[in-house]
């Protein structure tokens, strides 16, 4: 376990984010899965201190393990993540499931 240091703190904040689509629909098929894995690996574009340790895309949910410094709110990172992946339903027409 590696601790990180800033001017006034020593920290190791590790977040496990689980992200599911509405009604837990099985929409993350192979093409969408590869796209999400590629996009979610680059969440660290928001800040140099963000470290994406693990991305696991299942057919009905996504797991992310990230290290985020205390000066950045987790809500800000999730907002950035959702803004980068929000175009999935327009990119892949097959993920739109209508009942």
From TrEMBL:
What InterPro entries does its record include? Transposase_17, Transposase_17_sf
Domain called Transposase IS200-like: residue spans: 10-98
Q: Where are the transmembrane segments?
A: none
Q: Which Pfam families match?
A: Y1_Tnp (PF01797)
The GO terms describing molecular function are: DNA binding; transposase activity
Domain of life, source organism = Bacteria
Name the NCBIfam families for this protein. Answer: transpos_IS200
The protein, known as: Transposase IS200-like domain-containing protein
| Species, as recorded | candidate division WWE3 bacterium RIFCSPLOWO2_01_FULL_39_13
């Amino acid at each position: 376990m590696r601790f990180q240091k800033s001017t006034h703190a020593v920290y190791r904040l590790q977040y496990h984010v689980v992200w599911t689509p509405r009604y837990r629909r099985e929409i993350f098929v192979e093409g969408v899965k590869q796209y999400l894995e590629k996009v979610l690996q680059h969440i660290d574009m928001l800040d140099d201190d963000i470290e994406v340790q693990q991305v696991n895309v299942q057919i009905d949910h996504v797991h992310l393990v990230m290290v985020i410094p205390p000066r950045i709110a987790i809500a800000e990172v999730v907002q950035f993540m959702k803004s980068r992946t929000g175009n999935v339903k327009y990119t892949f027409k097959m993920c739109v499931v209508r009942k």
